[in-house]
Design a protein that fits this description.
Blueprint lengths: L3 E9 L3 E9 L10 E6 L8 H19 L2 E8 H17 L10 E7 L7 E5 L4 H10 L4 E7 L8 H18 L2 E7 L7 H7 L7 H13 L2 H7 L1 E7 L4 H6 L9 H4 L3 E2 L2 E6 L5 H15 L21 H13 L15 H12 L5 H13 L7 H9 L9 H37 L1
Parallel strand pairs: 1-4, 4-5, 6-7, 6-9, 7-8, 9-11
Antiparallel strand pairs: 1-2, 2-3, 3-8, 10-11
Helix pairs in contact: 1-6, 3-10, 10-11, 11-13
């Protein structure tokens, strides 16, 4: 049977839209759910289907290209339709070993949309990249756009409340409006089966194929409804980092993001000229000049809205703040515990297991900038002399991770059994 996807229903419910779809053929296995939704905190009731369908299309488009699945649509925005072939080239250049099929979307009616607005919409998560971009494009016509369902699941009310508090605080101190979107754009996909689809890339579907166009597309209905004509999304890597990191893959990339267009709205992948330290410097300078403290959230370990100050990303950010010496780490939301420098030393020597070139490149840059004028220099003198070429190669580090794995094994097994139990309960409830 031919692999095809048909949209059976599109509902616009005022602030929320829902798309029901059905799959023919083997492509069913790439989906956990047969519906897709986005819910905004502002009204989108006058937005037509040719715009509402864009988020759904973008989040499955790489699957269509790679597996040659035909998507059938009644209508689609003209600017977006034309841009597809342009940002597809970005994927083809990034993944030369993968074949991307053409003509995977069949549209009955293509609609030309105009947008007379003059406002800017800036994707905002409260992290370093997002803050740097916001400061870069900051003016009276800029508004924030935060997505729930990406890093934080839609069924985690505590983390959602913490994220909204973080964004709301930034909105108030910077005097900009905030906008939110909750979506199942990750939940409706079966990432286990998609892993095989993108195996040749050496990356995962979310990071390597989905998250750039997936996130950007969520802004389309809001832009049409509320007069945004420019969308900004922060870069993850600078020009220099792109040169030094071999085989760099990332779904949010200038050759992809900058070629996306819908209803006369342009997209900018912002901050390519800045590396991570440059971005932190932008934030520190802004705080120093404006006297406005900003709660920058970078933490991988803590979803409460606070930084744990003991994970890799916290360490990297705090080190950069120390080197830049514009403001204290506390001004950016990092409350250093008393044993911080002792724990950082353990982390570098024993705990960190990541082998990414980017991490070593960043740490070497910090080393080169660390001097007697840096904050906490006496506590970091040892790091200045540390040989990062031996990073991740010591037997002690290997032994530490073996022991750490054994120590946490019972907890991992319990969590896995709980997940299996939940799946069994779902099946039982459906059968009752």
């Amino acid at each position: 049977m031919k692999n095809e996807i048909f949209i059976s229903e599109i509902k616009n419910l005022g602030k929320r839209f829902e798309i029901r779809f059905k799959c023919n053929g083997d492509c069913k296995k790439y989906f956990k759910q047969d519906f897709f939704y986005c819910e905004y905190d502002h009204d989108i009731k006058n937005v037509q289907n040719d715009i509402l369908v864009i988020p759904f299309v973008c989040n499955i488009l790489p699957i269509l290209w790679i597996k040659n699945i035909q998507l059938h649509l009644d209508t689609l925005d003209e600017d977006f339709y034309v841009s597809i072939s342009k940002f597809k080239i970005g994927y083809e250049k990034m993944y030369p070993k993968i074949k991307f099929y053409d003509d995977v979307i069949e549209v009955k009616s293509i609609i030309k949309n105009m947008n007379d607005g003059d406002k800017n919409l800036c994707f905002f998560s409260g992290g370093v990249d997002a803050y740097s971009t916001l400061i870069d494009v900051y003016n009276e016509k800029t508004e924030l756009f935060t997505v729930i369902g990406a890093d934080i699941p839609v069924d985690n009310p505590e983390s959602i409340a913490n994220l909204k508090e973080l964004v709301s605080t930034a909105s108030k101190v910077l005097n900009v409006k905030e906008n939110y979107c909750s979506t199942n754009f990750k939940e409706f996909l079966e990432y286990g089966n998609l892993r095989d689809v993108v195996k040749k890339s050496g990356d995962e579907y979310w990071h390597g194929f989905q998250h750039g166009i997936g996130l950007i597309s969520l802004s389309a209905p809001l832009c049409k409804a509320h007069g945004f004509n420019q969308v900004y999304i922060a870069s993850s890597f600078s020009f220099n980092e792109q040169k030094y990191i071999k085989n760099l893959t990332c779904a949010s990339f200038p050759t992809i993001d900058n070629n996306i267009k819908f209803c006369s709205v342009s997209v900018e992948h912002n901050g390519l000229q800045y590396d991570r330290i440059d971005k932190i410097k932008n934030i520190c300078k802004f705080i120093y000049k404006s006297k406005i403290p900003l709660n920058v959230h970078v933490c991988w370990e803590n979803t409460s809205g606070h930084n744990c100050c003991k994970c890799e990303k916290c360490y990297r950010t705090i080190l950069a703040i120390c080197v830049l010496r514009e403001v204290e780490p506390e001004k950016l939301g990092f409350n250093l515990p008393k044993n911080f420098f002792c724990e950082f030393k353990k982390f570098i020597k024993y705990k960190s297991s990541r082998k990414q070139e980017y991490l070593i490149l960043f740490l070497k840059d910090i080393q080169s900038k660390l001097n007697e004028n840096s904050l906490y220099y006496n506590e970091l003198k040892w790091f200045k002399k540390y040989n990062l070429d031996k990073f991740n190669k010591s037997f002690i580090r290997f032994a530490y991770h073996v022991m750490d794995y054994i120590y946490h094994l019972p907890g991992r097994l319990v969590r896995k059994l709980n997940r299996i139990n939940k799946k069994i309960l779902k099946i039982v409830r459906k059968s009752i």
